[in-house]
# Entry
Amino acid sequence: MKPTSARPSTRHLIIAVPWFWLALFFLLPFLFVLKISLSEPTLAQPPYMDLIREIEDGFVTLVINFSNYQLLLEDSLYLSALWGSLKVAAISTLFCLLIGYPMAYAIARSPLHWRLPLLMLIILPFWTSFLIRIYAWIGILKANGLLNNLLMGLGLIDSPLAIMHTPLAVYIGVVYNYLPFVVLPLYATLIRLDLTLLEAAADLGCRPWKQFLLITLPLSMPGVIAGAMLVFIPVMGEFVIPDLLGGPDTLMLGKLMWTEFFSNKDWPLASSLAALLLVVLILPFVLLRHFERRSEEGNP
Amino acid sequence: MKQRLPLLITILLFGYAFLYIPIASLIVYSFNESRLVTVWSGFSTQWYSKLLENEQLLGAAWLSVQIAALTATLAVVLGTLAALALVRFRRFLGRGSLEVMVTAPLVMPDVIIGLSLLLLFVAMEGLIGWPAGRGMTTIVIAHTTFAMAYVAVVVQSRLAHMDLSLEEAALDLGARPLKVFFTITLPIIAPALIAGWLLAFTLSLDDLVVASFVSGPGATTLPMVVYSSVRLGVSPEINALATIIVALVTLAVLIAGFVLWRQEKQNRLDAH
# Structure
């Protein structure tokens, strides 16, 4: 089908069907988040007041309530949750890059017939259940878990290390689950790297480490940023990992939103938290789009 | 480059050990006799038979499989249409918004997708009476919305690298565009459609957060059951379930890999 070959009606249908689906079920819902975040909670089903209310017959009034946002700014709980999310997302993104970059590099430099199986092995854990991969870490990290048993058996420690329900457990869980998301884009940029540049540098007497810092690393930056954002953005809203591996002091936006919604049944406050999260994520998302487009353009 | 080979191999060994040791520990301890998951007390398959007697879990698993199959099928249709629009039509009204709407669900935190869709469903029910209540239908709609984005990405890359001359030849010989699509384009992008279907199926089967928001009282999916049992503590039955899932996934990946490999080989033979 050349661009011109499809009949206009078919063409319109191909565009309109996915466009309207996503507009209705992906874009429009954000307007409802905004709307409910401006309403008051109430004991009813659904548990929020309408913005437009009839006061006397025929008279309607619009009640906009900013108190949820006011609470987000005034109660330190919410700002520390925002800070906690930023911290966990940033640190685990850094560790994903520190572990993922050498792996992607090693796969990209491996013999041709090894690359596909090695990549498959990176993706394979991603196909097994996310919940179960986190569950596996509970068995390893808990007080009488595998790691503590091993270290105590070797005589390296006397009493179990407290790793479960600490920030460290959350970092381990996040890095473990999000590692494929940095390895794949990094591999894609590293495999396209023009090796003759490195040969030229070596011929001119450039040391391997300098070659890496001056050529490989700068040229793989689009992959680094894309991979970093693929981790950073979803981790900002992560709920399952801090809930199962973290402790009560692990404050993160996604977990707090879940509690406000499911335990406190405060839909308006949960909505304002979602709105806050969305605003924070706009900049990382723009970065991701920019660098993904750049790496697409580099694609022959 | 050669003197760095041992370093590269060491990096890979450590990396893969990090990825696979947790999964291996699940499998080993699923055959443990003791209820204490991390104390080995002898080989047993009792947790597998316990698992098969757990009717709540089996019911949830069946519901999840139905939801995942429906989701995957819908997501392949919608995702392929989106990919066709983005790859084949260079300029159209709404292209920019379609691009953003196809990329954003890939990274959007699932708590936001879940909450926003729930609010939409509640508002729609109030306005037009549909969807009446929440359950399987609302979960399928929610899962399709994020899964179609993944399908679109997979199909897009296949379409972008496809040789257009076959389609052009068929059109020049007078075949109708729709016929060209079904007899030429579709078979060529079929591997991407299968990969997309499997990916959407797994994403749906795996989702806890979105489903928790948009589900109703009657619809409890497998991840919800697993989540509540994990919250209560580590249980050997979950190890047995994990082992079954890992075995099925490995089998599926091996079959897919074998089929792709045979197809590539056939293509290479045909080319000569």
